[in-house]
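Figure-free illustration: sequence to structure, shown twice.
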Amino acid sequence: MARVCALLSGGKDSNYALYLSLARGDEVVCILAVKPRRRDSWMFHTAALEAPRLQAEAMGLSHAYREAVVSGVREREVEELKAVLTRLRSETGFDTIVLGGIASRYQLERARMLARHVAAGVYAPIWGVDPEEHLLNLVRNGFKFVISRASTMGLGAEYVGRVFDEDLAREVIALSRRYGFNPAFEGGEAETLVLDAPHYRMGLCVRGRVARLPGGVYELVVEGMRLCSEARVELEQA
């Protein structure tokens, strides 16, 4: 059994990796949400950054929750995280970093570098999975999530804030084949927000609106977020 520090963005992949870590019996001593100051971070999630704190609470792991603010500048943000992880390694005694990466070698290599810096290992349980099967498996395993930001051709405003089921997953897979984007969004085509999962005791209720940003980007602007018994998204009508 490992003592893990899980990097939690609020999205589907970091949540699924943490779920798999718990399923194999790991002890979660640290949940780290990294918050970039810039929206073009290469390494970290930038949408709906309010979510990880509530997700940790939904898991019953509020005591393990930590936050780190970084510049969001490529490479500098990774260097900035070294000091944070060094402190957390001393405070919590974690020996493994949990990573939700699927195909980004950039993220994996830098996570390994950070882990070496603090003499820890890396657990990346969904690295290399088939992205189409991964999207379907999330739904089949009881994960409820939405697209919180879409930034690729084929994913318009109508896909932001919709809770995924198998039909929507297959629709997105079909769009990915047509437009050539990664269906698991590993290339930054979209970001996601998990509302509920098998390891949650409660769900997240989100109130917000869909905004169009420059460059054909659509984003779920969160007006309110709280824990609730039945996860849902309430979108204001334009």
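We now fold a second protein in the same way, so the two outputs can be compared directly.
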Amino acid sequence: MKITGVNVFEVKPRWIFCKVETDEGISGWGELVSGTKTRAVVEGAKELSQRILGRNPFEIERIWQELHRSFFRGGPINGTIVSGLEMALWDIKGKAFGVPVWELLGGKARDRVRVYSWIGGDRPSDVADGAMDRLQKGFRAVKMNASEELHYVDTYDKVKQVVDRVSSIREACGSDIEIGIDFHGRVHKPMAKVLAHALVPYHPMFIEEPVLPENWESFDHIAREVPIPIATGERLYSRWDFKHLFTQGSIDIIQPDVSLCGGILEMRKILAMAEAFDIAAAPHAPYGPIALAATLQVDACSPNVFIQEQSFGIHYNQGFDLLDFVENKEIFQYSDGYVAVPTEPGLGLHVDEEKVRAVSAENLVWTNPSWKNYDGTIAEW
């Protein structure tokens, strides 16, 4: 079997899909992250795809090593291109052998995967109503953005707003629901300590990215301050980026993104490294259906995954949602806050290619929000 072509599709609201074709008629799908550099990712994917034409799609590790080990490695653009192409190769291989990808990675470690749902939006509001809605739909865990913009040192009024929102969920739902609180890298070290301390009485499931990943040395200080599990990892690009977190020992939960960290096998390697350090995993997956399907394949065979992000109804999905591009919609059927392990070959996903092509023809314009603090300085989104 040989790779004969790669097509790249820009899909609203903010997704990039790729389809890898072979001379035996078996094709595979992958997903890339658009971020704020859609044109760079799309054109880079087309350029890098030329290097795999004529290759055996089963030689995934060899192809991955070649694509990753350029002089400049990793990063958000090359990282997501390699990830998208890699998961498409696994889709091909699983289909060729008639088994789901997890079967090729050692087999199942579980029967179902726990999932959580987003509430509250980019600038969080109405979180109590959102949490109650998810609880009534069977979810037992939600995640919310903690705050709006926060300066290096900001007013306690903003801290109180966060606490009041979390408190409103506890008042509405009691202890029936777990709450993940995403600081989203918006909080700097001085305020991160204050905010984390204030949240302790509400027993969060975790706090996510309490500081930006480049300030990883601060994780140790925060971990010493509060007993809440700390999660991070969505902005890291390979197992080498995770090494310092594992050896530091301050992170309790890692969140690699299959569309950024190098793909399916790389994510499996990262999770296995984390397991050796007794670290849990809650993979990052706020994007489209292909990325979620690929992530579930890794979840199925990774025992330290305790919960999975999913993005149905997330505030970014304007105009289209995940099921709009999926023919076998039952793959993402949730029951009591869980999703079943996929059983169909490859990624287990039947992509509605006709719909993908139609929407892709409209082109994609997606830009991350640009925020400023009260004094005009740049704020983290």
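Summary for the second example: Residues 103-347 form a domain with the TIM Barrel fold (CATH 3.20.20.120).
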